[in-house]
Specification:
Number of helices: 6
Largest sheet: 4 strands, antiparallel
Helix content: 40-55%
Radius of gyration: 20 Å
Distance between the termini: 21 Å
Shape: elongated
Order of helices and strands: EEEHEEHEHHHHEE
């Protein structure tokens, strides 16, 4: 199975933008669909049955997708936007901080403590370190954009 999996919507289910009562057939709309990421048999970006039941209870007519509802061409654009950075090797001095999920979590918690430093000079130096570390991660992150409660994905080599 592929890492990224896509399902295009049937043409009759695509909602096109209209101007002067005429639909605009753009490539974003034509690539409307769903996608999920699969790693070791685990699907990421699935809509849970519990959430579907909750929404159905509130709005019986609303049908939710099984996976993230997103224009597939836009997802490709998002991923290609971070790919050149993702393909850069993780610096050796940084690798020890993120080689496991537990170590990365500890590292991120330590970064948050930087703001508790009292001395101005040291705080300035630590702020720069935190900013640089945060930007390093941000440039390798695939955000689910306007979706709530979907996880972000950080990719690195």
């Amino acid at each position: 199975m592929s890492l990224f999996n896509f399902i295009l919507k049937p043409l009759e289910d695509i909602v096109f933008v209209e101007t002067k009562n005429k639909p605009i057939f753009d490539w974003f709309a034509l690539s409307d669909g769903e996608y999920y990421i699969e790693i070791d048999g685990q699907k990421i970006y699935t809509v849970s049955d519990e959430y579907k039941a909750m929404v159905k209870n509130e709005d019986p007519e609303r049908k939710l997708p099984d996976y993230m509802d997103y224009q597939i061409s836009r997802m490709h654009e998002d991923f290609l936007g971070i790919l050149s950075t993702v393909l850069q090797e993780v610096p050796e001095e940084f690798h020890s901080y993120i080689k496991t999920v537990g170590e990365e979590k500890k590292w991120l918690e330590n970064i948050e403590k930087i703001y508790d430093v009292d001395e101005e000079d040291e705080e300035h130096v630590l702020f720069d370190l935190e900013r640089d570390a945060s930007m390093w991660i941000h440039k390798r992150t695939l955000f689910p954009n306007n979706f709530v409660d979907f996880p972000i994905q950080v990719f690195f080599k």
